[in-house]
Amino acid sequence: MASELSALSSRLDELLRAHTALRDENVRLKAAQEQLAGERAQLLAKNEQARSRVEAMISRLKAMEQAG
Q: pTM of the entire structure?
């Protein structure tokens, strides 16, 4: 009986350590995910700005071509 309790206690300790490790990893992964989402939003905004600039340049070139 005592050996069974000891084995259960050991197993419980292992599970608690695993739980703590997984919880810590989850926190790190969530933080990384938030950071990546922020970076993605910034990149999408920069991409939209670049697209707008290119479209404006194309419009100006077409206007110059028609006026020229």
A: 0.70
The dihedral through the CA atoms of 31, 35, 38, 40 has a sign that is negative
- CA dist 12 to 2, 23, 49, Å? 15, 16, 55
The residue range of the domain holding 11 is 1-68
Domain count of the chain?
Answer: 1
Per-residue pLDDT tens digits for 11-40: 999 999 999 999 999 999 999 999 999 999
